[in-house]
Amino acid sequence: MHLRDLTQFLTELGENNNRPWFLWNKPRYDILRAEFVTTLTELIREVAKFDRAVVACDPKKAIFRFQRDTRFSKDKTPYKSHFSAGIAPGDKRKPSDGAGPTYYFHIEGNGRLLFGAGEYMPPAPRLKAIREHVVADAAGFAKMLKDKRLRATFGDLRHDEGKLQRPPKGFDPEHELVDYLKLKSYFVWTEVDLDLNAPEKLVPTLAAGFRDAYALVTWLRTVPSTLRQPS
Asked: Is residue 227 domain-resident?
């Protein structure tokens, strides 16, 4: 896709984040969104080479809404400052959908690319299930954390997003993995500068990054489902 056009659009939107400006520039947005869908189609195809679970993911449904939910926010600007998408089985890519682990990325107006994978702020029942599985499969979890690809690209799980000060209720405060039991997200991510002169590198960069996060994704898929089964 035309990364320079996308970052230019996002930069201008950052300076004019209002509905009249957006409506005036909506033809630009429509073209960029169509290119984004094309890019996602290619990316899903590449990710499916190592993770067949996402092969049927619909690229149009993988895109997050560009409009912000301002109902409970002091920031009332109507539009996001980035293009973003989440790739997951069943076209579910939000925690509230019961998405499970998701491959996520977004592109910002300053030319930064953020990408990662895992479960970001899952609902309480799912979070409890993950923590219980950390305890039940401590050896498997510890092995996943040492995965060479995962550590080389992302380092450790993110510890800077809403981590509890104390162990969650009902969990052993002396457990060897207690620092991970305090997490509210089981997610890895990193940021790089986009090569605006080589847009063809975008999909390979993301596919390689998601492949490096595959150990975390596969471990999270072993967590027992919290969805109710029909009686």
From this structure: no
| Alpha carbon distance 47, 102 (integer Å) | 12
Nearest to 177 by CA among 214, 228, 143: 143
What residue ranges in the chain does DSSP mark as E strands? 82-87, 102-108, 112-119, 186-193
Q: Taking the model in full, what pTM does it have?
A: 0.93
What is the tally of structural domains in the chain? 1
Tokens 């969650």 appear where? 168
Neighbouring C-beta atoms of residue 213, cutoff 10 Å: 25
d(Cα 34, Cα 40) in Å, to the nearest integer?
A: 10
Q: Is the pLDDT of residue 98 over 70?
A: no
What is the reported pLDDT for 231?
36
Crossing angle of helices 26-47 and 3-15, in 10° steps, is 130
> What pLDDT, on the 0 to 100 scale, is given for residue 227?
53
Percent of the chain past pLDDT 90, that is, above it, reads: 87
**What's residue 162's pLDDT?**
79
Q: Whole domain around residue 127: which residue ranges?
A: 3-220
Q: What is the largest CA-CA distance in the chain?
A: 59
Residue 202: the pLDDT is 98
Cα distances (angstroms) measured from residue 218 to each of 2, 71, 117, 163, 199:
33, 35, 11, 23, 29
Domain assignment present for 225: no
* 182 within some domain: yes
In a domain, 183, yes or no: yes
Instruction: Classify residue 89 by its DSSP letter.
Output: G
Residue 96 predicted with pLDDT over 70: no
